[in-house]
Specification:
Blueprint (H helix, E strand, L loop, with lengths): L13 E6 L8 E9 L11 E4 L4 E7 L15
Antiparallel strand pairs: 1-2, 1-4, 2-3, 3-4
Length: 77
């Protein structure tokens, strides 16, 4: 998933973002989503999030199997 749809991103999901300072190089920073900052359902450059580390950037990649709940709906620990 490419990170342009807000519905694909939830707190606790592992993602790769581009920080504002890294936009020219495209360097990715990996982390766990703490907050979703973009209100609109879609954004062409990626949904803006805050990671648990406090870094803020736009999601470029969502890692598979990174959803905070399992298939049974039980929260992963």
């Amino acid at each position: 998933m490419d990170g342009t749809r807000r519905a694909d991103i939830k707190p606790g999901v592992r993602v790769a973002i581009v920080l504002k300072k890294d936009q020219q190089t495209g360097k990715l920073t990996e982390g766990i989503v703490k907050n979703i900052l973009t209100n609109s359902p879609l954004h062409p450059h990626g949904i803006k999030v805050r990671l648990e580390t406090g870094d803020v950037g736009r999601v470029k990649k969502i890692f598979q199997g990174a959803h905070p709940t399992s298939q049974t709906g039980v929260k992963a620990v």
